[in-house]
């Protein structure tokens, strides 16, 4: 209302950075599974990779992707784009979205589950692709983390407030969550709370092409 009174237009461009967000999400997922960041850091430090045993230790957390189950919470534009990419890597893709009509899953060759609990229980990696509102603040919390598979991964390129970061940090330290990749955070500047994942600064949607598309629409 305040903007309207000043004759200032407000535009929402939800599709401008869908592809960029999906690409970044897959990068985070692949990094967690294949431990590229950890291997790169070990190579830079040098002393950690001077023997076969040291290399094996650094890479010991890497996991095979094909046959793993990726669970998507939210199946809008970005969720669907991630699903297409993930299937190409051999993931079994499931999703939970209470607002989406039935039928879309058949066209994309993915499986729909009808409760959040089912998705958390079945997924080896959980990726968030939903909006933030008063009903899903801290959707991922101590209670829901305990419903996830032991040693699962968590990826958030959606909204920082979806994840209770203190609960996540505790789960990572206890080994209940194997690793996490957070591109968005509830508060900024972000303070790294553990060494069990990768963190970013809301860059998943950032490319010059996405910025140009936003400007073209507006």
From TrEMBL:
Transmembrane segments: none annotated. GO terms for cellular component: nucleus; synapse. GO terms for biological process: cell differentiation; regulation of transcription by RNA polymerase II. Residues 28-190 form the D-isomer specific 2-hydroxyacid dehydrogenase NAD-binding domain. It comes from the Eukaryota. The keyword Repressor applies. GO terms for molecular function: DNA-binding transcription factor binding; NAD binding; oxidoreductase activity; transcription coactivator activity; transcription coregulator binding; transcription corepressor activity. SUPFAM superfamilies: NAD(P)-binding Rossmann-fold domains. Keywords: Differentiation, Methylation, NAD, Nucleus, Oxidoreductase, Phosphoprotein, Repressor, Synapse, Transcription, Transcription regulation. The keyword Cell wall biogenesis/degradation does not apply. It is found in: Nucleus; Synapse. Belongs to the D-isomer specific 2-hydroxyacid dehydrogenase family. PANTHER family: C-TERMINAL-BINDING PROTEIN, C-TERMINAL-BINDING PROTEIN 2. This is C-terminal-binding protein 2. It comes from Sinocyclocheilus rhinocerous. The lineage of its organism: Eukaryota, Metazoa, Chordata, Craniata, Vertebrata.
């Amino acid at each position: 209302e305040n903007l309207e009174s000043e004759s200032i237009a407000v535009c929402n461009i939800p599709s401008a950075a869908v592809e960029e967000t999906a690409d970044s999400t897959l990068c985070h997922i692949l990094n967690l599974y294949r431990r590229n960041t950890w291997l790169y850091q070990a190579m830079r430090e040098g002393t950690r990779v001077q023997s076969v045993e040291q290399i094996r230790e650094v890479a010991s957390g890497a996991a095979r992707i094909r046959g793993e189950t990726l669970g998507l919470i939210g199946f809008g534009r970005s969720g669907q784009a991630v699903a297409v990419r993930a299937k190409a890597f051999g993931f079994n893709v499931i999703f939970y979205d209470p607002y989406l009509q039935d039928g879309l899953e058949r066209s994309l060759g993915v499986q729909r589950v009808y409760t959040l609990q089912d998705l958390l229980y079945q997924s080896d990696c959980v990726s968030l692709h939903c909006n933030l509102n008063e009903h899903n603040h801290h959707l991922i919390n101590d209670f829901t983390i305990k419903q996830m598979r032991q040693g699962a991964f968590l990826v958030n390129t959606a909204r920082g407030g979806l994840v209770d970061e203190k609960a996540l940090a505790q789960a990572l330290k206890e080994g209940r969550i194997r690793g996490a990749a957070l591109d968005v955070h509830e508060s900024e500047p972000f303070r790294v709370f553990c060494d069990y994942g990768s963190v970013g600064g809301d860059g998943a949607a950032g490319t010059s092409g996405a910025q140009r598309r936003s400007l073209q629409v507006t």
